[in-house]
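User: Please fill in residues for this 423-position structure.
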């Protein structure tokens, strides 16, 4: 069985608040370092980025592209994210969508249609457009029936199809007559499949996961794993699996622990207030510090729409595996911050030998021990066993993962301050 790892939602250097290092060559290099086989291009609606993609990529397998120079295992799929802001049902809706396309010719056709509708595609890699989601889906399929639209990070409060602040209660409410064409949703960092299983209306919808990376290091923090033989790997086969909801070929997703996502709990970041949904209900949704409504997070929103008990599974699920990004595990092992030079150097040294997904999911502990320190091996072992403690994220602030107890962390911090650790 050939496992194909895909990350189909990323951004370019032309998207707001994204790294300037996000160019085709760097993306291919880091995808190989991560162990990603198919990477979305992101932002194909931006004219400058689209021109760069056309100059840098050549088609290798049907609908999948490789760099025209260099030797990289990664293949690219043409993808973008679009922000729809519009009025529907007397409310302002803010909904983000992913769009997948099979060729540059189809991308050009879609761009022409969007610009003909007055959409400004130059201002941001993730453009804000005034089109209704149903209308956007019609335009996408009019450009080519081979395209696919997937609601992005479906539960995020401010910009998602089910978001508490500006979304809908059902896909049919958002897409109307076009709803049957929506066969998958992206669960986002703050939810995992088990949470989505609580909503029966999603039983026939595939749950996909992607990184939404704004920097190279965040590529693959969530991903999808398909079973596709090398001679069958193509855009069309990936889309077929998603459109036909082929659960035999869609093996599993790779997930954040949802508590680590920045909108898992409710709260007010400015007021340093983080609440479980039960506390939000107790306080009637009002911050006890500033007396304003708190930002209602993903867990609350899922609970509001849930009609199945927590832990109950629908039939024909696609399983998932929860991971902590490798750089975070190394940081925990070293007792240092993720962005420190020592942690980054250790991450690069390890992934020079073993791609990140192999290290997280497959590599034996004995083999891992030949490439890194015992502390990192132990962190990976605990992660695979689910022995992870997370202070939940809320109101735009990521959660904090702990792989070691407080006493272990204090000891590691003292050791790091005194002598550092070689990894």
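Assistant: Residues filled in for all 423 positions:
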């Amino acid at each position: 069985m050939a496992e194909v790892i895909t990350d189909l939602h990323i951004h370019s250097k032309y998207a707001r608040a994204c790294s300037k290092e996000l160019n085709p060559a760097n993306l291919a290099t880091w995808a190989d370092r991560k162990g990603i086989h198919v990477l979305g291009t992101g932002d194909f609606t931006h004219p400058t980025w689209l021109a760069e993609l056309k100059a840098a990529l050549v088609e290798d397998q049907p609908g999948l592209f490789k760099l025209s120079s260099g030797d990289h295992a990664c293949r690219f799929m043409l993808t973008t994210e679009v922000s729809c802001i519009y009025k529907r049902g007397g409310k302002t809706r803010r909904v983000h969508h992913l769009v997948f396309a099979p060729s540059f010719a189809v991308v050009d056709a879609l761009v022409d249609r969007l610009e003909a509708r007055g959409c400004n595609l130059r201002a941001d890699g993730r453009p804000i457009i005034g089109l209704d989601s149903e209308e956007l889906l019609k335009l996408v399929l009019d450009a080519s029936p081979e395209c696919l639209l997937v609601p992005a990070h479906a539960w995020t409060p401010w910009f998602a199809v089910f978001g508490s602040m500006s979304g809908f209660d059902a896909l049919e409410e958002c897409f109307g007559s076009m709803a049957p064409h929506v066969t998958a949703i992206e669960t986002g960092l703050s939810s995992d499949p088990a949470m989505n299983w609580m909503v029966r209306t999603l039983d026939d919808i595939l749950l996909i996961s992607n990184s939404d990376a704004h920097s190279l290091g965040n590529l693959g923090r969530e991903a999808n794993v398909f079973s596709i033989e090398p001679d069958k790997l193509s855009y069309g086969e990936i889309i077929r699996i998603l459109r036909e909801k082929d659960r035999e070929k869609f093996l599993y997703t790779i997930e954040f622990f949802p508590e680590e996502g920045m909108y898992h709990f409710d709260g007010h970041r400015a007021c340093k207030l983080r609440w479980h949904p039960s506390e939000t209900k107790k306080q009637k949704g009002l911050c006890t510090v500033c007396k304003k409504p708190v930002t209602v997070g993903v867990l609350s929103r899922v609970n509001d729409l849930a009609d199945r008990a927590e832990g109950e599974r629908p039939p024909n699920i696609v399983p998932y595996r929860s991971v902590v990004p490798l750089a975070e595990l190394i940081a925990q092992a070293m007792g240092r911050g993720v962005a420190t030079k020592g942690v980054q150097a250790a991450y690069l040294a390890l992934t020079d030998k073993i791609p990140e997904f192999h290290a997280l999911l497959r590599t034996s502990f004995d083999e891992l021990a030949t490439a890194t320190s015992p502390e990192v091996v132990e962190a990976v072992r605990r992660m695979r066993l689910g022995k992870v403690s997370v202070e939940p994220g809320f109101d735009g602030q990521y959660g904090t993962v702990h792989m070691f107890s407080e006493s272990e962390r204090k000891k590691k911090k003292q050791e790091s301050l005194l002598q550092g650790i070689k990894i």
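For context: The mean pLDDT is 96.
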